[in-house]
Amino acid sequence: SKSFKVAVLPGDGIGPEVMAEALQVLDAVEKKYAVRFERTFANVGGAGIDEEGKALPQTTVDICKGSDAILFGSVGGPKWESLPPDEQPERGALLPLRKIFGLYANLRPAIIFPALTGASSLKEEVIAGGFNVLVVRELTGGIYFSQPKGIEGQGRDRVGIDTMRYTVPEIERITHVAFQAARKRDKRVTSIDKANVLSSSILWREIVEGVAKEYPDVKLSHMYVDNAAMQLVRWPKQFDVILCENMFGDILSDEAAMLTGSLGMLPSASLAQGSFGMYEPSGGSAPDIAGQGIANPIAQILSASMMLRYSFAMVEAADAIDGAVEAVLNQGLRTGDIFQDRPGERRVNTKEMGEAIVAAL
Amino acid sequence: SKSFKVAVLPGDGIGPEVMAEALQVLDAVEKKYAVRFERTFANVGGAGIDEEGKALPQTTVDICKGSDAILFGSVGGPKWESLPPDEQPERGALLPLRKIFGLYANLRPAIIFPALTGASSLKEEVIAGGFNVLVVRELTGGIYFSQPKGIEGQGRDRVGIDTMRYTVPEIERITHVAFQAARKRDKRVTSIDKANVLSSSILWREIVEGVAKEYPDVKLSHMYVDNAAMQLVRWPKQFDVILCENMFGDILSDEAAMLTGSLGMLPSASLAQGSFGMYEPSGGSAPDIAGQGIANPIAQILSASMMLRYSFAMVEAADAIDGAVEAVLNQGLRTGDIFQDRPGERRVNTKEMGEAIVAAL
Ligand SMILES: CC(C)[C@H](C(=O)O)[C@@H](O)C(=O)O
Ligand SMILES: CC(C)[C@H](C(=O)O)[C@@H](O)C(=O)O
Question: Which CATH number applies to A1-117+267-361: 2.60.120.260, 3.40.50.720, 3.90.1510.10, 3.40.718.10?
Fold first, then answer.
């Protein structure tokens, strides 16, 4: 039987609670399919700071290096908010993880499940029947990581500097990810840039067009980032795959996620060349409801499903998990964040939701 | 009687049609208040390209230099879309105008008029009673204008580079604009940055906090740009003044504008040190409906009102125009873009809307 090593990084806030349910789902997958998931737990984020003095302790990096994939919970909370930006749980854990493991391709689905259209702040007529957008975000380049970056000079003569820099291979590889993904979906890629202002965007657009020629079955269009921010609000269904550089992807993926109205439902994958990847919910650590056992575990469970799909090539098991989640939603089960008190809905807690998904599996 | 010189740049698409109505409103203001507006027309955008070979001809620059303010229509259209980015009507006219005239402060109100909540793609419960956000965007610095910028190298070794750079005085002066504006409104400023990733944002946040001390009556908070893109969708009413650097302001002001659902209603001002400014609708040139006499002239008329308020210190006249617009909306007059066929609504064309506003004045 196959065996995979998983680094389990529950993190802070609701992270440990929802992770527990995702691990139950992995248990169920082990029983159903001939597979073993060897799990090693490690500290990250605030837990890393509290236990080992750093948001990303070296022991955690080593555990991740010895694994086939990282299953990540969520990090951050008021306790660590006054630390310098570099040391804070989110930035201090996520940016180094992305860089160390070369996680250049961030996949962020923004899906409204038809059963949950009511949760969106968009009008029913705008989202009737749901929508399904996949943001493919470049994650290890651009203004996040390029040099020069820093504050130069003294006192009132200081200048803050960041650099948005893209090379041809960086643009090519993320474009391939977007087009490959589109092939399995509705075969449309909207590439986002600001080519009327940015030189990096002019190169971006040219390289994207070059790569697109290898995918004649996929339709490519270009959109300026400011227009994309508008079009997402106006008519999200016009999009299939949205391809973005790092910063634009940060902004638009969060906008798209919020448009679904159910952040607690959305997983994400950050992929390296090869099969290694890190998988985490799109939402945050929700410190306000942490420890109460009421958080929605679905984003974490769907993150585990993405791990099976992208890192372990277990497409059948991933489909089964996704199907189990949908079945449970159709049965009317709702954690508090998605509960709307409509006929047929039943309010459940984290454990009950997790158990129902395991049962549906 | 006072006299002001106005450079009138109607531009392309619906620009000339809506400008005609704004000029009628200025005629009415001349009659009612002891003032004269000396108008000089000039080509800009596609009209500049067609007539004088450039989106911003030198004659136009000279006319603007000889004026107290610029009243700008809108530019762009399919005819000029295949030109290189630098030469296109929008970029080729707007960026040089901002730079030449030092228009560092861009004010973009995103207002839902209570009469028009139905036009938004947001749910009634999210926007009941309307909302009123003012985006204050830095307009002459940051990644739009800083060096180095360009594509270096050859072939597959090319690198696209842009620089986001902010100095202390640049941050200070736009922060003052935001706080001054907040004083006349709900006294709250949300400063947008990405201080967990960008060095320019770390400096931005520090300088904004310093300036804020001079305005103890105004409440300052900070928000990351990705979170702001979410919060605008989730609950736009939480914002009063949103203070942004150039690129974030481009994205968020467009998102906020679209949330209102009536782009044809939204004016903007781009202000220099002193009283000089440029005033233009937030929407585009809408080539699809150009020449039909059905465009909404309100954004252009409200842009003229902002000109009176900010460049000519004619607060009373500006209030009168704003009041006339509101009155006409309350009477039920609607151009096609805001017509919803509800009881009490009457569909009108560009001229009728302009005339009704003049009459209400
Ligand atoms: C925490 C922060 C550095 C991070 C980012 O900007 O990438 C987060 O917003 C995200 O999108 O994962
Ligand atoms: C046309 C373009 C250069 C411009 C900008 O990005 O500033 C436009 O989008 C705007 O917001 O006025």
Answer: 3.40.718.10
List, for residues B259-286, the tens digit of each pLDDT value.
998 888 999 999 999 999 999 999 999 9
Q: What CATH number does the domain located at A121-260 have?
A: 3.40.718.10
Ligand 2 pocket test target in A192, A196, A231 with most atoms within 8 Å of CB: A196
Nearest Cα to Cα of residue B46 among B354, B287, B240: B287
Helix axes B298-310, B15-32, angle to 10 degrees: 50
Name which residue sits closest to atom 5 of ligand 1, judged by CA. Answer: A250
pTM > 0.90: yes or no: yes
Written as six digits, the tokens of A72 are: 């990540």
Q: How far is CA B61 from CA A50, B44, B64, in A?
A: 60, 10, 5
Nearest-CA residue of chain B relative to A123? B123
Rounded Cα–Cα distance for residues B55 and B47 (Å): 7
Question: What does the pLDDT look like over A88-113, one tens digit per residue?
Answer: 999 999 999 999 999 999 999 999 98
Nearest to A230 among B196, B199, B254 (CB): B254
End-to-end distance of chain B based on CA atoms, in angstroms?
20
Residues of chain A with pLDDT under 50: none
Does residue B129 sit at the A interface (CB-CB below 8 Å)?
no
Q: Is the CB of B240 under 6 A from ligand 2?
A: no
| C-alpha A15 to ligand 2 mean position (Å) | 40
Instruction: Among B98, B133, B199, B222, pick the best mutation site for testing chain A contact (most A Cβ within 10 A).
Output: B199
pLDDT given at position B129: 84
pLDDT tens, B183-228? 999 999 999 999 999 999 999 999 999 999 999 999 999 999 999 9
The CATH class of the B1-106+267-361 domain is alpha beta
Q: Which of A104, A144, A215, A279 is catalytic?
A: A144
pLDDT of residue A225: 98
